[in-house]
Design brief:
This protein has 216 residues and is of the alpha/beta class. It has a single domain, classed as Vaccinia Virus protein VP39 (Rossmann fold, 3-Layer(aba) Sandwich). It is built from 7 helices and 10 strands. Strands 3-2-1-4-5-10-9 form a 7-stranded mixed beta sheet. A 3-stranded antiparallel beta sheet has the order 6-7-8, with helices on one face. It starts with a helix and ends with a strand. The mean pLDDT is 93.
Length: 216
């Protein structure tokens, strides 16, 4: 199994893997997003992208799953919304400098190695125009999966593990990895902790870090 086939399997088993509601922090600060294009990294079936498209924004997105992208485009076209999603790997994505009003990285950076995630954070920062907003949500070292990974998986970088069976990486973040790249941004929201996830599958706990900031 590969990372791509893993996600294809996950999307094929349900009609909507992540539901339709946008992340609550994005919804809360949506009015602060300036006019201009939006980039959604790991767009999935479009729950965040379609929310902003309904507000009149043009949204671009990328996802490794063809099924997810097809669903996103079908939903956006059915509602006559301006969303353009493509199939691709985040590791190979070039983000144009100072282009975007908002860049979303919701629960996707954990599937990169630490070094890859650090490079992506720099790309996100450079891709925002003045007053542009970044939204990052990741799983942290407080996640129960981190303890499991330390026991069961191969450590390849700091807090990054490799599953030979799934041929995928799992990285668990600490606060500084998320906050420091945007230290000179205006802080809009930051939270970290542990919560019970009821959105998909059996109820389970996650350790998380969520950050939202605005470029000055």
């Amino acid at each position: 199994m590969t990372e791509k086939s893993l996600w294809e399997k996950a999307y094929s088993e349900v009609s909507l893997l992540w539901g339709v509601e946008p992340d609550h922090v994005l919804k809360a600060y949506a009015e602060l997003v300036p006019q201009g294009p939006i980039l959604d990294l790991g767009i999935g079936e479009g729950r965040n992208a379609l929310f902003f498209a309904k507000m009149g924004y043009e949204v671009e997105g990328i996802d490794i799953s063809e099924t997810a992208v097809e669903r996103c485009m079908r939903r956006s076209q059915g509602a006559n919304l301006k969303v353009q999603a493509s199939v691709g790997d985040l590791r190979e994505l070039d983000i144009p400098q100072a282009r975007y009003s908002l860049i979303i990285a919701a629960w996707v950076l954990n599937f990169l190695r630490k070094g890859e995630a650090d490079k992506m954070m720099a790309k996100i920062r450079d891709g925002l125009k003045r007053d542009g907003i970044v939204y990052v949500a990741v799983f942290s070292t407080d996640d129960p999966g981190f303890t499991w990974a330390k026991e069961k998986l191969e450590l390849v970088e700091e807090n990054t593990f490799y599953s030979r069976k799934m041929r995928t990486y799992r990285h668990y973040f600490i606060k500084d990895e998320i906050v420091l790249p945007f230290a000179d941004f205006r802080l809009l929201y930051h939270a970290d902790g542990t919560e019970l996830d009821l959105d998909h599958g059996e109820p389970h706990y996650h350790g998380f870090i969520i950050y939202c900031g605005q470029r000055r």
